[in-house]
Amino acid sequence: MRLRTLGLAVAVALLGACGGGGGDGTSLPRPGSATTISGTAAANTALGDIAVEAFAPSPGAPPNSFSAQAFSTTSAANGTYSVTTSASVQPPFLIRTGGTTGLQDSDAHYPRLYSDALRGGSITNVTPLTDLAIARVLNRKPSFVVDLRAVFELQNVSEAQLNAAQQQVVNYLLTRPSKDNGNLTAPVDVAGVTNFFTMPLTAAPGDVYFQALTRLHLSLMDSESIQGVEEHMLFGNDAAANLATMLALNFAANCTPEGAALGTPQGATQIVLNPSGAIFGAALNPVTLLFQPGDKLSLTAEHSLEQRWVFTFAGTSSVELRLFDGRLNFVRVSVLGASSLCVPTSELSVSDKDPSLTALVRLFGLSIANTIGNPSPGVFQCVASGAFFQSGAHTVTVQANGALRIDNPIGQALHLPSLNITMNADLVPSGQVLLIQPRSFAASRTFKGGLDELAVAFTSAGQITGLRLARQQNAAALQAQTCGTI
Fold it and tell me: What is the pTM of this model?
């Protein structure tokens, strides 16, 4: 068992290490008794020889510090695991598979799975079903790397709340979109699993729990991950994103020049972002950047819960907003090669302004002349035949579940909500209004031995001028094709 102490945005400190399952060998105080957590980690197969970690708030951690201790073991070949904590921490524990080293996804469908141990001494499984229940009870997707905020949020979650979240997952899966047609449903019945967390599980054919996991797995598109399932479960009803919502910020920050202070804000600064532009009202080196024709916006949203908004002014100045888990982390303003980093003086929620991946996918669908649920396909042209497409015209549709399908139903398909997304747009000032016109869309993910990557460029009228698709599965050779101009 390995004990680690983690802090939000702080490097992991390895405090001790030994073989899985025993005492930790550290000198932490033991006012109570150690807790043993055991169960089975499984998806459509036993998850053997992977890291399983239990997280608890660090004893005496300052308020809002999000400092946690991690206790780690490695699962057996049949997916069973057992991890023992120190006596200085007590349940509940956030459980996670996948470890924290090597941030590349280890599995195309299940890069990480979460669970919750309310107490020690009883079964705690870690499966796609426990993961969906955790996402449902948190009402958000847990991050790919260790979600320290969730460690603290789960301290106040009751067994009744977990049971309610489980029922919500059961109900959602009965309305699962079909992997062959995202505008239709293909129910997945998991009602035979009486408790996702504590029902005994043997990862082998004939086991009721395992059969439910197999049915869920068979409902996934080949490019669909458990994070994409969470996305659709939580945000499947989101409308197309309105990118202008970010243009309504007014907050206090402290700005620090990065390098020599050459005309960028310094010290206490009031930052305003509105349809006219960005204003940095610092006492020293105030900056005003007004939107002009030709300015650009690039928005990137990732399953790590991070978003980046970059406004580019006349190609020489920029304002970058970095968001994490619905909160503004910092703003970087760059002017003629000099830059300042501005950090809000208090926590600033922007959860009403940062669009979900689903909302961005729907905006993309509308931008290429699709009507979600009743698609009018976009069209692109290939001059020559290649890895995926013959020469000639091809259609692109975005279905209700966010699946992109080319030459539906026989062509390539990608589950876009499972991928990280970047949308680029032109900024067009029009009187007192700023028009934000999407002009390109990119989506990608990497995993062990594989890649899914899409890029589409289009005009303001929705005409596709270029499309690139690249895919690799099971460590086979990468296949890629570009049609038109990206």
Answer: 0.91
